[in-house]
Amino acid sequence: MDENGLTVNLIGYHVEAVDGRIGTVDAVSDEIGEGYLVIDTGPWIFGHKVMLPASVITQVDASHRKIYVDRTQKEISNAPDFIMADDPPQRPYAERFPYGIP
């Protein structure tokens, strides 16, 4: 949600790690308690797509279309690869996050 309490479509937003830009949001799941982002790291890691729990988001800047996360570029690059499937990842896949989901 933005500062006015409105839902914001995060697809296409730039993702800023604590140590710099890491990519853009490619997909979003907003399931309660299991939300995640698929980040396309683009040329930074040669088109690598990773999955991050929504709980790592610290700030959403809708005016600049940026999301800030509390992870480093290295932590994000080590996150699980996102592999396209017809269905969203199930819980065992989500447990592969190197820093877990609460």
TrEMBL record:
GO terms for cellular component: plasma membrane light-harvesting complex. It comes from Herbidospora galbida. It comes from the Bacteria. InterPro entries: Bac_photo_RC_H_C (IPR014747), PRC_barrel-like_sf (IPR011033). GO terms for biological process: photosynthesis, light reaction. Gene3D superfamilies: Photosynthetic Reaction Center, subunit H, domain 2. This is PRC-barrel domain containing protein. Residues 79-102 are annotated as: Disordered.
